[in-house]
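Hi Q.,

Before the meeting this afternoon, I wanted you to have the IPE prediction in hand. No need to reply - just skim if you have a minute. The sequence and ligand are here:
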Amino acid sequence: MEAEPRAFPDHRMPRHVAIIMDGNGRWAQQRYLPRTAGHRAGVTAVRKVVEHCVEKGVEALTLFAFSSENWRRPQEEVSVLMDLFLSTLGRETEKLHENRVRLRIIGDRSAFSPQLQEKIAASEALTAGNSGMSLIVAANYGGRWDILNAMRTLAAQIAAGSLRAEDLTEDLLSRHVSLADLPEPDLFIRTGGDQRISNFMLWQLAYTELFFTATLWPDFDEQLLDQAFADFARRQRRFGYTGEQVEALSSGHGDIS
Ligand code: IPE
Ligand code: IPE
Ligand code: MG
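Predicted structure with the ligand bound:
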């Protein structure tokens, strides 16, 4: 299997940032508040991060808002999260549109209420033509679901005779998972202190730089985001090459043999 990266990236700034916004519940518990107060406080951090990414020229920002496993939580918490999603879309969509942000939701939206599904569709439709930052909210999203979905599409093509199993490639699968039209995430951030992927973008994160912080999501802000960017800028992404090969490649001369 050839291991050519898409194009050798030597960006000091990530083009695509993906964030697991974790720690809302603990933030609230530390204050003797119900967990849901943490989710509400988390919306403020979302606003800050979106604005800062727009200012910094980030092309795509993907935020993990609700995982396919989060349905396991107490029904009361799930329902507050759904309400918050709906009200936040209602309140923020217009402003995002003014800032030329293109909003997209990834995940299985069929489980949401008809009202939420309509709001999602309307927000996406309003901002679909925008050429600014892509803001992706992963809601009822799971990395395994994403890969399975892609496989189902391809399996149907194989069953219909329009694709042969031996013609399945990594590239073809990449073109059928969520966000196939965007560069894969360059920088992944998880707040809240846990160092795991929790079924986020399993396929797309293969070569993403990982940044973990103990800061709880409602306390995450522009300064911390800049710290993550600075940390990212110091890293050498090798994609399987040696460090010397990467230096030759990114300085634009020398071959990689
Ligand atoms: C992340 O914060 C938000 C969602 C998963 C919806 P948590 O609610 O997971 O907060 P902790 O991890 O319990 O502190
Ligand atoms: C991941 O956080 C999902 C979101 C932030 C939406 P969780 O809090 O659900 O992850 P686990 O359960 O600790 O792995
Ligand atoms: Mg959590």
